[in-house]
Design a protein that fits this description.
The complex is a heterotrimer. Chain A folds into 3 domains: 69-177, no CATH class; 207-319, no CATH class; 335-519, no CATH class. By secondary structure, chain A is an alpha+beta fold. Chain A has helices at residues 12-15, 21-54, 69-79, 109-123, 133-140, 152-161, 207-217, 251-260, 270-277, 294-301, 323-326, 331-334, 337-366, 374-385, 391-410, 417-434, 440-454, 459-497; strands at residues 86-93, 96-103, 146-149, 165-168, 174-177, 223-230, 236-243, 289-291, 306-310, 316-319, 499-500, 503-504. The termini of chain A are far apart. The model of chain C is unreliable at 94-100 (pLDDT under 50). Classes of the chains: A alpha+beta, B mainly alpha, C alpha/beta.
């Protein structure tokens, strides 16, 4: 009989040495180390190459252009490595070689072909050569704007901006040609500020279009436009507009200094600039008027204000402004003065209601029901006998519901907009009352408050009013009518203490030394009477004709 | 941010409005029954004479201030009287203003505690009011001026609302027209201190106003005229509608005058609550004005840069004294004390100062 | 320390103050609001009815008042019974029609100080009693006869929660029954009584111009005499008519409708009144004159040693109703003139009767005293001590001028 086969458990690598896991992992680790090492070597090589490139360049610049076009091309390619939307076009210009570097999506290639390539290739014989760069710019290239750029950083930025680079063999100067063309939104209606009567064109996202819209409305050479680039990375163009002989002396310099001192990485929205223009950062009231309408911008400029237009943003910023400017709309100037004056009163009343109505309700119902007529007091008591909550909690509940509703409406998709009306009416209106959670009078109060906020001409201002509603409600719930009065007084003091560039936020309301400015504040007098600019803005030229 | 404001000082009319806003406060409510118990149905005559009397005091202060343009009382007092006496007089001045604030606080919170609330402790209302006053007094003068110009609108509204008392007017209550107790009328005049207190802050505010075409005395005079007219007509209608004897029995006569109104249809009730609502801003601006005058006076006297340093200093004192006056007896004592102090300052110290200035100016051109 | 403070940033100080303020607000929020009480958590008191506790006691068969309507009192006696009519809040939605639910209920207590009774009644009430909507105070004759009006009214005058335009009524019977009355109109009892007296401008038998708590207080302060409307409650029907006359806080007597009419003619407080006069040919039939404008002037005159009052009345009105069987010619100026004269005579007689009535009783409702003092202050000083003797002898010279403005729609 044979000896039985012994079964022994052992590792695979004992019988097949090639399958050793330990060895495999060792090899893998070595391989990874190799890869990492090669990556390090690549980075080291690149930085050395960069350093080699910078040897001859001035500080801050990546390289210096040479006479040799191949070297130049290599330098440019290395600066714009892995930017595949940059196109390089070689062509011959006479005897020498030429290179056009442009960004595919932002350049008008037709223009380039016509004004650069055709000119250089078509007009020159193959044996001609150039003397210097002026010959090219003055005689040969027919593009509207050609600049000789000295700094390579500017050249790179220009390429990205849509101004292609033209390099000629033998000439160490770089030429930037203006041939920018990009997709932009057409001039359309103002989304948030449409009016019943008045122009319907609004700013779009292109700075040059916006400036053009403003310029079209006034052929005044005193309207100055200064363009800055703000944002260390985004280099966004920001235009400062003002009318030189109207504005208060010193204001333009002050604003210019403020803009130039902004240290920010990126400017994407006009709101980024706006935050630097107000001095009280925690103040909920907007201190800068934003508008999408060019007519409002021009009107503001002609009152002695400054306008700021930011590239890629359809809103213009106008300041210094006061509270009354937030309560005006273009409709005020297109409708009859008598009607408009009454409507302005209504707006101020709505602003007051938006902040204080729930507080007044809570204070009267909880603290002073004696102030109501007897019949009303009895019916309110009967209404509230069914509901379990004290007045403050009820008010908070409805406030919360209203805020959620307002946020939902802003973000609702178009298709559901119709449904939102039904849902809102049902949920907030009827059902909450039928479920005996709140009483019907409070629903009316809260609905009025919500409507009052929406009736504000300026959306930001309406939001600021919403901010104050809750603290005032708490004050009313703690101390009744006394708390409401104290909060009214505190709000007035707060508003009086706000200033923009030295000018009061409340403007000329209730300041008797500025009594001649009251013509366009609370009421609007007909154009015959509006013969001077607002005194508080300190304009140099105070007279004007008409509104 | 640079201040590019064009103007720095207030115009004479603004000074007039500011001085006027300090006059009418809730302090007059407890004082009404007091002086009517002396003057009876000739309260209107008493008020007229008191208006002239206190305008005289304000006029003397304006004259004193005009001798030292661009200087507040804290600066020229040590020069006139020497260091020690000057410090004492300055202390009296500060005390008069602080006492005004305390009286206003006591008056308005007593009113609220009785009519608006039931169990809320008065100290809570006082501290809330004082904090609101401090918040405003901490702002710079331009802001305070703007607040005063806004809240002074509550004054005509208050008066128009008060005019509803005319619905109950009975001319019979005002008769006889020929006064037979002249002594009573004259006795009622010092009790008008509560009606007119607050003009002492002029001594600090004069340098903040620029001279214009109109003199300060005239603008302040117009203010006093308006306020006196309000008081006189108010006295006429109050005595006419609820009779002098009832007023003497009632602690807050104006409020009871409002209680006696019944509007046709009664769609609004408890009109006295609305009255208290209007009294609050009017009292508030007087308190802010006095507090600012205290801080500004101290700052100029001690040569500091910013008046805001002095505002928190006085707050605990004001709160504790106000809360201490919680019984009617203490309040009466305090009212009498403040009346004597204010009259002493306005009619004894200020004329002495004027006399000294006149003497010094006579003998020495440079002052 | 001041110099250290000087170096500190004002913003720092402001920050500290705001922190202190926030701390105080937080304390106030957490410790609770002292006076917040929801509207539905208050019991609205509409009518306060005051009776004489002894009479009520005697009317109960057991000769004892129920335990719930009294409390142990250390000192003093049980003099008054205070009943409060309180509004019942309907919890269910009213669906129209159906039985008129009772809107109010009444709780009572006996004692002497009103305030103590009110606080004891909180033992019968689940919510706190709220007097700011008190519309009527009904006082029984017996209660007033005990110690006068002032002790009853003091609580209602002194408390700051009370209104000064609360209406007062005097009733010869029991005041609690009036508080328990539920008007058929469905409104609460207090509103009903308020409405009754509001009609005083058209109802010449009701005097309501100066009879609420505020005016009575003024009269008491000035030491004058006053009148309060009389409310009768018989067979569960209330009726307002006539006045109760008070002299120095004591009830002297009642003026019936005729005398009340005289007072109203004297005062001129009504906006519209109806004066029936006898038909010239048929004395048992009547012509009614409807008055819509009425001016009076009561002035004192002193000549030498005599004082007399003159009353000038001017009336404008229409012919209201003619129940004569004879057809009168409306265009006849003589006839109209005779109507005017008849009306004037009627008015004059009424006023004279009224004047003599009050002189007999010794009350001075039109406040003749104040008029003499007002118009003739020097003479007043001489006679002021003897006024009580002089007053009943003062004659009144009346002149009435009546004009007919309209004759109605159909002759």
């Amino acid at each position: 009989m044979d000896k039985p086969q012994q079964i022994r458990l052992n590792k695979l690598s004992a019988s097949h040495p090639g399958c050793s896991l330990a060895k495999t992992s060792q090899t893998l680790a070595a391989l990874q180390k190799q890869v990492k090492l090669s990556k390090d070597i690549e980075t080291a090589i690149r930085s050395t190459a960069k350093k080699m490139r910078t040897v001859a360049a001035p500080p801050g610049q990546p390289f210096l252009f040479t006479n040799n076009i191949d070297i130049n091309e290599r330098l440019v390619r290395s600066a714009l490595i892995r930017c595949d939307d940059i196109k390089y076009r070689r062509f011959g210009a006479g005897k020498a070689k030429a290179l056009l570097v442009y960004l595919g999506g932002l350049t008008d290639t037709n223009k380039l072909e016509k004004t650069v390539i055709e000119c250089l290739t078509g007009r020159l014989e193959s044996y001609e050569s150039f003397g210097d760069v002026n010959e090219i710019t003055n005689l040969l290239i027919t593009a509207a704007e050609v600049t000789v750029v000295a700094k390579p950083t500017e050249v790179i930025t220009n390429i990205i901006r849509g101004m292609p680079l033209l390099l000629i063999d033998g000439i160490s100067d770089a030429l930037s040609i203006d041939a920018a063309k990009y997709e932009k939104r057409q001039i359309s209606k103002a989304e948030n500020e449409d009016v019943a009567r008045g122009p319907h064109d609004a700013f779009n996202e292109t700075l040059s279009d916006n400036i053009a819209l403003v310029r079209r409305r006034t052929k005044d050479p005193d309207l100055k436009v200064e363009i800055f680039e703000i944002g260390s990375r985004t280099q966004t163009a920001v235009a400062l507009l003002y009318v030189d002989d109207i504005i208060k002396s010193g204001l333009a310099d002050e604003v210019r200094n403020q803009l130039l001192s902004i240290q920010i990485d990126k400017v994407i929205l006009s709101a980024n600039i706006e935050e630097f223009l107000s001095n009280r950062v925690w103040n909920p009231f907007p201190q800068v008027l934003t508008t999408e309408r060019p007519d409002k911008t021009v009107a503001g400029l002609y009152e002695g204000r400054i306008g700021i237009l930011v590239d890629n943003s359809p809103t213009a910023l106008i300041f210094p402004v006061s509270l009354q400017d937030f309560m005006q709309s273009v409709d005020d100037y297109t409708q009859r003065p008598a009607v408009v004056s009454l409507i302005r009163f209504t707006r101020y009343l709505a602003a007051f209601t938006a902040v204080f109505l729930p507080a007044l309700y809570v204070s009267v119902v909880s603290y002073h029901p004696g102030m109501l007529p007897s019949g009303l007091a009895f019916s309110i008591a009967e209404l509230r006998a069914r509901t379990p909550f004290p007045a403050l909690l009820e008010a908070f509940l409805m406030e919360g519901l209203l805020e959620i509703f307002q946020e939902a409406i802003v973000r609702l998709p178009q298709k559901l907009a119709a449904a939102a009306g039904v849902v809102g009416a049902l949920v907030i209106g009827t059902t909450v009352v039928e479920a005996a959670l709140v009483n019907a009078l409070l629903v009316v109060v809260v609905a009025l408050t919500g409507l009052a906020v929406f009736s504000m001409p300026s959306y930001t201002f309406g939001m600021a009013l919403r901010f104050f509603r809750v603290p005032v409600l708490i004050a009313a719930a703690t101390l009744g009518l006394y708390g409401v009065i104290i909060s009214i007084i505190l709000m007035i003091v707060f508003l009086c203490s706000l200033r923009t560039y030295g000018e009061f936020y409340l403007g000329d309301i209730f300041d008797i030394t500025l009594i001649e400015d009251w013509k366009d504040g609370l009421v609007r007098l007909p154009a015959k009477f509006l013969t001077s600019r607002p005194k508080r803005l300190g304009p140099k030229d105070r007279t004007r004709i008409g509104g | 941010m640079a201040n590019l404001e064009a103007k720095v000082k207030m115009s004479p009319w603004q000074l007039g409005i500011v001085a006027t806003s300090g006059l009418l406060t809730a302090r007059l409510l407890p004082a009404t029954s007091h002086f009517i118990s002396y003057a009876e149905q000739f309260a209107w005559l008493s008020s007229t004479l008191a208006g002239l009397f206190f305008y005289l005091a304000a006029y003397l202060m304006i004259r004193l201030g005009e001798q030292f343009p661009n200087e507040t009382i804290g600066e020229y007092i040590p020069r006139l009287l020497g260091n020690k006496a000057g410090a004492a007089v300055f202390l009296v001045f500060i005390t008069v203003l602080l006492v005004n604030i305390i009286n206003c606080a006591i008056a308005i919170t007593t009113l609220s505690t009785i009519f608006l609330f039931d169990r809320t402790p008065q100290a809570v209302l006082i501290i809330v009011l004082l904090i609101a006053v401090v918040y405003c007094a901490m702002q710079e003068w331009g802001t305070i001026l703007r607040v005063i110009q806004m809240l002074v609108l509550a004054l005509p509204l208050l008066y128009i609302f008060y005019s509803l008392v005319w619905l109950n007017f009975e001319p019979l209550n005002l008769l006889p027209l020929w006064p037979d107790n002249f002594i009573g009328i004259l006795q009622g005049i010092p009790y008008h201190t509560d009606y007119y207190a607050g003009y002492e802050s002029l001594l600090v505010l004069l340098p903040l106003a620029s001279r214009g075409k109109v003199s300060f005395a005239r603008t302040v005079g117009w203010g006093f005229l308006v306020i006196t007219a309000i008081y006189v007509v108010g006295a006429v209608v109050l005595v006419g509608s609820i009779t002098a004897k009832t007023i003497a029995n009632v602690p807050q006569a104006v409020i009871y005058g409002m209680k006696s109104i019944e509007l046709p249809g009664t769609f609004i009730e408890r009109l006295e609550n609305y009255m208290i609502m209007f009294f609050m801003p009017v009292t508030y601006i007087s308190m802010v004005l006095s507090y600012f005058a205290v801080a500004e006076g101290c700052r100029k006297y001690l040569k500091y840069n910013d008046h805001r340093t002095f505002i928190p200093v006085f707050l605990p004192l004001l709160f504790f004294v106000s809360s201490f006056m919680d019984t009617p007896y203490r309040r009466e004592m305090f009212r009498d004390f403040s009346m004597f102090l204010a009259l002493f300052f306005s009619f004894v110290i200020i004329p002495i100062l004027l006399y000294l200035v006149g003497r010094k100016k006579g003998s020495n051109q440079q002052c | 320390m001041l110099s250290r403070m000087n170096k500190r940033n004002p913003a720092h100080i402001g920050w500290r103050i705001s922190v202190a303020g926030i701390a105080i607000w937080a304390c106030m929020l957490t410790t609770g609001c002292w006076d917040a009480k929801e509207t539905q958590d208050r019991n609205f008191v509409l009518i306060a009815a005051i009776d004489d506790a002894d009479i009520v006691k005697k009317s109960e068969d057991e000769k004892q008042i129920a335990r719930t309507q009294t409390f142990v009192q250390k000192q003093g006696t049980k003099e008054y019974m205070l009943s409060l009519q309180i509004l019942k809040l309907a919890k269910t939605e009213s669906k129209g029609g159906g039985v008129q639910a009772e809107k109010t209920f009444v709780i009572s207590d006996t004692g002497k100080p009103m305030f103590e009774m009110v606080r004891d009644m909180l033992g019968q009430s689940s919510k706190s009693l709220y007097f700011e909507h008190l519309t009527a105070i009904v006082i029984s004759e017996a209660a007033v006869k005990k110690k006068g009006l002032r002790p009853i009214l003091d609580f209602f005058r002194r408390d700051p929660e009370m209104r000064w335009r609360t209406k007062l009524f005097i009733t010869p019977g029991e005041a609690k029954a009036i508080a328990q009355y539920n008007p058929p109109t469905g409104e609460p009892g207090g509103t009903y009584l308020n409405g009754l007296i509001r009609n005083h401008k058209k109802n010449i038998h009701v005097g309501g111009a100066k009879t609420d708590v505020g005016y009575i207080t003024q009269a008491i302060d000035n030491g004058a005499d006053y009148a309060i409307p009389r409310l009768d409650y018989i067979d569960n029907v209330p009726k307002l008519g006539g006045m109760a006359l008070f002299k120095h806080d004591t009830l002297i007597g009642y003026a019936d409708e005729y005398i009340t009419r005289g007072f109203k003619f004297l005062y001129g407080t009504e906006k519209s009144a109806v004066i029936p006069i006898k038909c010239p040919e048929h004395p048992e039939q009547e012509i009614v004159y409807e008055l819509f404008q009425h001016d009076t002037k009561l002035s004192p005159h002193i000549e030498g040693d005599t004082i007399y009052f003159t009353l000038d009345i001017t009336m404008q009105g229409n012919i209201g109703e003619i129940t004569c069987t004879v057809q009168h010619d409306m265009h006849d100026a003589l006839f109209l003139h005779s109507v005017e004269q008849a009306v004037a005579q009627e008015v004059e007689q009424n006023v004279r009767d009224c004047w003599e009535f009050q002189q007999r009783l010794g009350v001075d409702i039109p406040n003749a005293k104040a008029r003499v003092k007002g118009y003739h202050p020097f003479e007043w000083k001489k006679i002021k001590d003897r006024w009580e003797d002089i007053y009943p002898t003062i004659p009144l010279a009346i002149s009435v001028n009546v004009n007919i403005r309209g004759r109605g729609e159909h002759d």
